[in-house]
Write a structure and sequence with these properties.
The protein is mainly beta and 286 residues long. Helices cover 10% and strands 57% of the residues. It has three helices and 13 strands, in the order αααβββββββββββββ. Strands 1-4-6-7-8-9-10-13 form an eight-stranded antiparallel beta barrel. A hairpin with a 2-residue loop joins strand 9 and strand 10. The longest helix is centred in the first third of the chain and has 15 residues. The protein is elongated, with a radius of gyration of 37 Å.
Length: 286
Amino acid sequence: MGAALWTVALPFLCVAGPSSSEEISAEEPSVEKAAARLKLLRSPEPVENWTKGLVVGGFFGGAWPSSQQVSGVAQTPGGPQSSHGVSQTHTGIFAGPYLGYNFMDAGLPLSRDGKWKAIPGVLLILNYAEMSSSALSYGPSSAGPIASSGSSRTFLPEIGGVVLISNPTRFVPFLGATAGVALSWASGNSVVSPSGAELVAPGQTVFTYAPSTKVMAGVAIRIVPHWNWILGYATRFIAPTSSTVEGLNPDVVSSIQSRTGWYQDFEGWVALQYDFGTLRQPTTIP
């Protein structure tokens, strides 16, 4: 019985076993092939290009001006008549787009682990604002106040710098300052004498321009990757301006030249921003 079992098992051993030294040698993977296989399994490396610091957004907000010194000179048949007064505060609104660039590689570390950094950036902002205004002024011999009013539309392009306090949280504070030029078109101008008579011809639009600057602060709040809400506060200054309107009745007043002092307001705004920099993510190796 033992010989029979051996005779039956022998063919299977011969088939399954090695028949030569070549059959027992297997091709072992080299270091180069292992590295190539790992490279195929890895996610693509992020592309470093100029867009990593680019941001674009749109904003909307309100402005609350402080009182402003005003003066005027009316040309009358009896000679120029001057008046001085103070403007009344009116709330304005503004909106527009902006484009920015943050220099991600130029961040200044604020902590030992490098998780907090001060990152500089630049901005191009295009503001459009609408606001109404009014003022009461008094002449040397006027029996009462001279009331003036009107509304203005302002286009204000400005450039600026900003510093972001980058950190591991979704809240990123920032500080900044801008400079630009306020281009304003005033319409609906009205000047009423103490007796109640209108002094300005209707339908006039007056153009003025003046340098402008503002300082601002706020916080960017990450919603999802790429998208942020921006909550900001600013105070703006606009240099003095002057303008001239024609009188309604040349026999009474032929023209009125108006001058305004330094303008200051306080602004609150909200923006929605798309951040190209969030495309730069750390590589994950499976």
